[in-house]
């Protein structure tokens, strides 16, 4: 028979048409050009079954084994053996993923399959780093000629723009400038700090328009010999698009808005200082159906600051509110916040997505968000979890140190994933006042556990409370979820080493049911915890010995909790406990305000020894509906509480209003109570913090108390999710030994660039480039092939210690992608693939399918290329006129044969 593919192949065509004439096959078409691939139909009959591959993998056999590959063509390139071995390994990983996706899989087998899958991913990654292909290039990631870090460092700013303070015409008087507006501009130079007073009453009868006030302030600054100046910044109004049912409605743009812009001068660090102040109360909340996170600021009544005014663009304003800021996109939860000694606010949040310039490593990370007193985001410090982390509690010490506690699943410290990679462990991390990590401790049980409270003690002690489903190290389990209290002492492990947190004691306590610690406070030589134990509200007192180690001294059962605890503290020689409950008769003492029905907030005062006393008091706060207590803070005998309230019998979709209230601790009297709505009639506060003297007339002007335009840290371990010890590797483009690049505590973009050049043996060029298209301009690390060099392969670090994800870099080949000597194929397989849940399994199955397709493409590229190359300019074939004429002759001959 005559096969038409032979004729078609002579002039660059191809077909899958079967034989047409005769019964013999041409010797030319029978000639084998490539060994049979394992995915070919002729190989499928002998290919191992998925169940056999899973069984072999779980038995510990290597997934990628070149020795097990049989090539059925003599003299075939060694690349085929490597390709087929890699394909079989990917096929085994795919079989494991399919097995994890099977219904009815036991938890034990699921854990075993997941663990083997992770080990197989490591095996695959190591193989790709070391395999030396000759005529093709396979990389785990992608192939690019230029890569830039997703992380970007903002260049030092010379200007600072406030939030809008005026909407309307420039000739209009600005409401924010009305009344007593007096403050100081501080200018710090090498010679010292100068304070320049500004008082708008000095303008006399001059209208307080934007331009008039700015001219007055600049005149004061000029008279003081200061080069810094104030300007106005227009924020152009945009049309607003809203949906009403199935219709989209475009509303006309409102008036233009105006803000103040401070233009600094060389050598001058600018700050602002209030003359008259009042206390500030910060509330974090979720607003709208999707719970968009916000930070609200209220000015407490009393104090010397002028009355609060409604800001521009605050539709849900209530009396006393002086500011509102939206938290970054990607914030999934906020559970705690605290004010720092400098008046700033730290918010601990869970992120499911990092900012464009600051990516996270895994699926969910903990972020420390630092805001100035005007609600401007000053700093974002990422914990750097490789998989999942949740932040539950934050504490700020008098020296500015910050402690964060929560849970982590997967790796946190490089290379350490806990006893089980898919089980949550407790963690505590301590940072200095600038957000630089000092130490981290991960202390977990065999089963799940989490740290829910953290506090500072004397002499560098840090106390962490939480709950665990099994025995904590050195302790015994009591049943269900148990409560625990851990003590960490800060001290250097070596004479010249850095400070570390050393665990010096662990106490596990509770009942045979489910227990928890929902609040904790450190007061002198005592620690008090409060929580729900087997459904009952329980307070415990621990005494601290000379070394700061706690011992249980007293326990008090307050009856059925029927709710939760929001906070505990010691005030005026009494223990103050706050929470929410359906129980109208908690076992505490005299009731000053009775329970109103539904769920009410309660405030209880107890003796410090937790023994029933005549001075015990119980105050209920709320209406007939359901009132919750999200958080509480106490100052000067006054209890500040925030939460939400709903009508009795309301559903989740019914309106929920937020409130901020202040109660007198001695009498139970409600002295202050403000309620407000949120977007879509949904507002749910999540945390509360107080700042003494934190509110002033500067809030009206969008100006913070303290210095502005402070430069971001250049340290990668502070500015990104990278942790000390995180790694990636660089190997030659043609294969060979990989060189590891490790992140150090003092690394910056500049030092990392030098490490990359050295690790690549100068085959890569790494430079810090400025992106001026964004405002403010940012700096990124750019990597390209060095001059006259092919490039190199950048590979991710091991699971739990990969630096590429934190830097926003994709693994793969970086170099001349147009190089025709060896075509590059990227598998695009992230190191983070796992089988921990349904979403992870699906992602793994899809990614492995695409990777196997890439291997097939690499196989085809090694075979005879019968399709003519296409001219990239015209899109037409690049054959010569002679070749085209010959093709026409062959086509005519084929037509005659077919006839």
In words, what does this structure look like?
- The strands form 13 sheets. The chain has a five-stranded mixed β-sheet with strand order 2-50-49-45-46, sandwiched between helices.
- The radius of gyration is 33 Å and the shape is globular.
- Helices cover 16% and strands 38% of the residues.
- The protein contains twelve helices and 51 strands.
What is this entry, summarized?
By secondary structure, the chain is of the alpha+beta class. Strands 2-50-49-45-46 form a 5-stranded mixed β-sheet, sandwiched between helices. The protein has a 5-stranded mixed β-sheet with strand order 33-34-36-37-35, with no helix packed on it. Strands 38, 39, 40, 41 and 42 form a 5-stranded antiparallel β-sheet that branches.
List keywords for this structure.
12 helices, globular, alpha+beta, five-stranded mixed β-sheet, disordered N terminus, 899 residues, single chain
First-residue to last-residue Cα separation: 15 Å
Average of pLDDT: 88
Shape: globular
Number of strands: 51
* Estimated helix fraction: 10-25%
Number of helices: 12
Enumerate the strands of the largest sheet in spatial order, edge to edge or round the barrel.
2-50-49-45-46
* Structural class estimated from helices and strands: alpha+beta
- Quaternary: single chain
Task: Report the radius of gyration as a whole number of Å.
Answer: 33 Å
Strand content: 35-45%
**Major sheet details:** 5 strands, mixed
Taking pLDDT < 50 over at least 5 consecutive residues as the criterion, the unreliable ranges are 1-28, 867-882
């Amino acid at each position: 028979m005559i096969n038409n593919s032979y004729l078609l192949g002579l002039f660059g065509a191809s077909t899958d048409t079967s034989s047409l004439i005769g019964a013999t096959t041409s010797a030319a078409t029978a000639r084998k050009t490539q060994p049979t691939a394992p995915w070919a139909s002729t190989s499928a009959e002998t290919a191992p079954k998925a169940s056999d591959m899973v069984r072999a993998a779980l038995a510990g056999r290597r997934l990628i084994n070149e020795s097990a590959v049989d090539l059925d063509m003599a003299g075939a390139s060694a690349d085929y053996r490597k390709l087929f071995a890699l394909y079989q390994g990917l096929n085994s990983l795919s079989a494991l993923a399919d097995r994890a996706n099977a219904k009815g899989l036991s938890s034990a087998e699921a854990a075993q399959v997941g663990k083997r899958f992770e080990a197989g991913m490591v095996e695959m990654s190591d193989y790709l780093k070391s395999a030396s292909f000759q005529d093709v290039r396979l990389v785990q990631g992608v192939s690019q000629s230029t890569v830039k870090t997703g992380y970007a460092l903002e260049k030092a700013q010379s200007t600072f723009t406030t939030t809008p303070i005026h909407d309307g015409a420039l000739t209009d008087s600005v409401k924010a400038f009305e009344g007593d507006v007096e403050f100081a501009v501080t200018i710090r130079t090498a010679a010292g700090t100068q304070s320049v007073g500004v008082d708008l009453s000095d303008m006399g009868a001059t209208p307080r328009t934007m331009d008039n006030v700015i001219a007055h302030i600049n005149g004061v600054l000029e008279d003081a010999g200061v080069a810094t100046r104030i300007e106005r910044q227009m924020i152009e109004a945009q049309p607003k698009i809203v949906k009403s049912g199935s219709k989209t409605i475009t509303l006309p743009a409102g008036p233009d808005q105006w803000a103040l812009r401070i233009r600094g001068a060389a050598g001058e660090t600018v700050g602002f200082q209030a003359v008259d102040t009042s206390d500030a109360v910060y509330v974090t909340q979720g607003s709208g159906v999707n719970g968009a996170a916000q930070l609200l600021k209220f000015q407490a009544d009393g104090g010397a600051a002028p009355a609060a005014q409604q800001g521009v663009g605050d539709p849900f304003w209530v009396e006393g509110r002086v500011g509102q800021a939206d938290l970054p996109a990607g914030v999934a939860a906020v559970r705690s916040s605290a004010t720092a000694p400098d008046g700033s606010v730290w918010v601990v949040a869970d992120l499911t997505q990092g900012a464009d310039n600051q990516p996270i490593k895994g699926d969910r990370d903990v972020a420390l968000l630092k805001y100035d007193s005007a609600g401007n985001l000053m700093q974002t410090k990422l914990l750097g979890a490789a998989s999942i982390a949740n932040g539950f509690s934050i504490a700020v010490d008098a020296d500015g140190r910050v402690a964060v506690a929560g849970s982590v699943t997967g790796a946190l410290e490089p290379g350490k994933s806990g006893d089980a990679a898919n089980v949550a462990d407790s963690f505590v991390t301590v940072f200095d006042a600038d957000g630089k990590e000092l130490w981290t401790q991960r202390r977990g049980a065999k089963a799940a556990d989490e740290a829910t409270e953290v506090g500072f003690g004397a002499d560098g002690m840090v106390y962490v409370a939480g709950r665990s489903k099994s025995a904590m190290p050195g302790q015994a389990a009591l049943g269900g979820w148990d409560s625990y209290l851990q003590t960490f002492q800060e001290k250097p492990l070596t004479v010249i080493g850095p400070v570390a947190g050393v665990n010096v004691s662990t106490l596990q306590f509770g009942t045979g049911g489910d227990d928890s610690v929902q609040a904790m406070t450190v007061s002198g030589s005592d620690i008090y915890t409060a929580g729900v134990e087997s459904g009952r509200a329980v307070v415990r007192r621990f005494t601290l010995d000379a070394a700061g180690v706690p011992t249980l001294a007293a326990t008090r059962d307050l009856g059925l909790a029927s709710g939760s605890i929001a906070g505990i503290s010691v005030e005026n020689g009494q223990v103050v406990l706050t929470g929410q409950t359906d129980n109208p008769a908690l076992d505490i003492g005299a009731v000053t305000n009775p329970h109103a029905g539904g769920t009410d907030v309660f405030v209880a005062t107890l003796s410090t020894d937790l023994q029933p006393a005549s001075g015990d008091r119980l105050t209920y706060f709320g209406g007939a509906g359901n009132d919750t207590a999200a958080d509480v803070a106490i100052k000067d005998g006054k209890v500040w509480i925030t939460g939400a309230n709903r009508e009795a019998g309301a559903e989740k979709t019914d309106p929920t209003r937020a409130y901020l209230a202040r109660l007198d601790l001695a009498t139970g009297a409600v002295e202050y109570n403000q309620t407000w709505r949120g977007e879509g009639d949904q507002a749910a506060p999540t945390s509360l913090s107080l700042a003494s003297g934190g509110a002033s007339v500067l809030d009206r002007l969008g100006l913070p108390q303290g210095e502005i335009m402070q430069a971001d840290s250049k340290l990668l371990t502070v500015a990104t999710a990278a942790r000390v010890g995180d790694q990636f590797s660089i190997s030659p483009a043609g294969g060979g030994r990989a060189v590891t690049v490790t992140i150090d505590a003092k690394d910056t973009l500049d030092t990392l660039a030098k490490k990359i050049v050295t690790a690549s043996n100068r085959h890569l060029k790494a430079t810090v480039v400025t992106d001026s298209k964004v405002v403010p301009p940012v700096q990124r690390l750019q990597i390209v092939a060095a001059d006259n060099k092919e490039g190199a392969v950048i590979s991710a670090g091991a699971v739990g210690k990969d630096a590429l994800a934190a830097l926003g870099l994709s693994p793969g080949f970086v170099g001349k992608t147009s190089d025709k000597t060896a075509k590059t194929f990227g598998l695009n397989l992230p190191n983070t693939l796992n089988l921990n849940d349904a979403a992870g399994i699906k992602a793994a199955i899809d990614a492995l399918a695409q990777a196997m397709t890439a291997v097939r493409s690499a196989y085809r590229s090694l075979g005879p290329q019968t399709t003519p190359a296409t001219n990239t300019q015209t899109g037409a074939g690049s054959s010569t006129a002679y070749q085209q004429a010959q093709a026409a002759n062959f086509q005519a001959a084929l037509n005659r044969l077919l006839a």
